[in-house]
Amino acid sequence: MSMSPLLTAALSALLAAPSVPPVPESERPRLDAGEVVIHPRKPQNDAGFAVTAYAVVKAPVDRIWPHLRDCDRYAEFMPRAKASALRAGSGLDGVCYIEIGMPFPFSDLWAENASSGGPLAGGGFERRWKLARGTYSKNEGVWRVVPWSADASLVVYELEAAPDTPLPDALLRKAQGGALPDVFTAIRKRVGAAR
Asked: How does pLDDT run across 138-157, given as a tens digit for each residue?
């Protein structure tokens, strides 16, 4: 039994599409204007925080991707990253260490995350990570970079984390949402500096 040409074309387009969250039409003007769109999610077991955020960066995918792939260089530009190192393997298929500075009187947080990733069907790249050990009970997420227009890319950040800290979950969620625009600002500056 063969499929109709229209069904075959639709299926091929679906399978070739990069794995990104659907961007509602109402958010496209906000993204084109440079806004960071943040969608809090309910974390598993209602512990810690979970979020999906995305923004447009005015650079092609291949200029942005190395900065998100190479976790050992995060301390050079990511907000609150005090230290970062590649402990094993490569930035895509390895173990990445990151230390996050916390305000006094709280102890800094650290994680060794097993990461994996590579090219996406239809264009773009992703890097996934999952906690191997550290001062979290959960820390997993993904960076994705996919084409947005001829001269810009959509950068997507998903994170679900439960840090071992006495801060209430509600305060952690508020702090994370407030910090995300700074993360995307740092990426934009880093990509600009890499021209």
From this structure: 999 999 999 999 999 999 99
At residue 133, what is the residue type? R
User: Are 50 and 159 contacting, i.e. CB atoms less than 8 angstroms apart?
Assistant: yes
Both tokens assigned to 165: 């800290």
For the entire predicted model, the pTM comes to 0.84
Q: Any residues with CB less than 8 A from the CB of 54 and at least 6 apart, and which?
A: 20, 21, 23, 31, 36, 37, 154, 155, 156, 157
CB 87 within 8 A of CB 112: yes
What's the topology of domain 24-193? Alpha-D-Glucose-1,6-Bisphosphate; Chain A, domain 4 (3.30.530)
CA-to-CA distance for 110 and 112, rounded, in angstroms? Answer: 7
152, burial (CB in 10 Å: exposed 0-12, middle 13-18, buried 19+): middle
Angle between helices 61-69 and 169-193 (to 10 degrees): 130
| Among 147, 138, 169, 158, residue whose Cα is nearest residue 39 | 158
DSSP-derived 3-state class of residue 24: coil
The Cα 65–Cα 42 span in angstroms is 28
Residue type for position 21? P
- What tens digit of pLDDT does each residue of 98-147 get? 999 988 888 899 999 999 999 999 899 999 999 999 999 999 999 999 99
pLDDT score at 169: 61
